[in-house]
Amino acid sequence: MKVLVTGVTGQLGFDVCRRLEELKIEYKGVGHRDFDLTDGDKVTAAVEAYRPDAVIHCAAYTAVDKAETEKDTARAVNVTGTENVAKACRAVDAKLLYISTDYVFDGTGAKEWRPEDRRCPCNYYGLTKARGEDAVQANLGKYFIVRVTWVFGVNGNNIIKTVLRLGREREVLRFVTDQIASPTYTRDLAALLCDMIQTERYGVYHATNEGFCSSYELAKETLAAAGITTCRVEPILTRDYPTPAVRPLNSRLCKEKLTENGFTRLPPWQDALGRFVKELNER
């Protein structure tokens, strides 16, 4: 099996490549410097030259707040770029695994969002990811769409690293209590994705570490896991911390479809956090 991984310089792409190496699966990782998603001809040429059996499409425009003003760029990467990858996969009969987001939902209520629930993005970034999903489904039958939340890994910036850095510099941190989701460790997620592409159990999935929390609870747990006792975390509400892009309050994703299709669900987020902090300390 040959796998092409986009977004290799990002958190998830990095760990997907690490996992493929562990599995001894042949792969090629590409970043934005050598794989311009917005150029359809170049994408097709690159995919046809490598002729992968599967593409794991991790690359994306993820600057959520900037997307509100950089709409053309966000759309070019997340919509046109994804459509280009999907068409290239169709040309070589390759499977496509597309990484999407909880931001395709509006974040209302308190129920767990199911993969088949109606999408209603609450910000422009979410809209572009939803349109990326549409592009995949319009061009391919052999696809996996995997929605994730609050991703963290060793290769890049994330909320965990921010909490650890600020927790060592400050006496007080403030995080919101009314945004609920699941932290997702890219090491765990990558293992699932690499298992997934070796099957033909296509469809739309939700995949996060088990359990839900607020960013306030996550920050407290992060400081505890790192043994940082000189900083405390204070709760605030989303309205106390306005941002250019609206954030969903409820990002609880239902993962039952993973179980129904024979995939192993990810460990609890607290377990993942502990392993991540240990990995950072060992680097």
How do the strands and helices of this protein lay out in sequence?
Layout: E1 2-6, H1 11-22, E2 26-30, H2 40-50, E3 54-57, H3 71-92, E4 95-101, H4 124-139, E5 143-148, E6 151-152, H5 159-169, E7 172-176, E8 180-181, E9 184-185, H6 186-196, E10 203-206, E11 209-210, E12 213-214, H7 215-226, E13 232-236, H8 256-260, E14 266-268, H9 269-282
Parallel strand pairs: 1-2, 1-3, 3-4, 4-5, 5-10, 6-9, 7-13, 11-14
Antiparallel strand pairs: 8-12
Walkthrough of the structure:
It is a single chain. With 283 residues, the chain is α/β, with parallel strands linked by helices. It has a domain of 198 residues: Rossmann fold, CATH 3.40.50.720. Helix content is 40%, strand content 19%. A 6-stranded parallel beta sheet has the order 2-1-3-4-5-10, sandwiched between helices. Strands 6-9 form a two-stranded parallel ribbon. Strand 4, helix 4 and strand 5 form a beta-alpha-beta unit. Helix 3 runs parallel beside helix 4, helix 5 packs across helix 7 and helix 7 packs across helix 9. The chain is globular and about 55 Å long. The protein starts with a strand and ends with a helix.
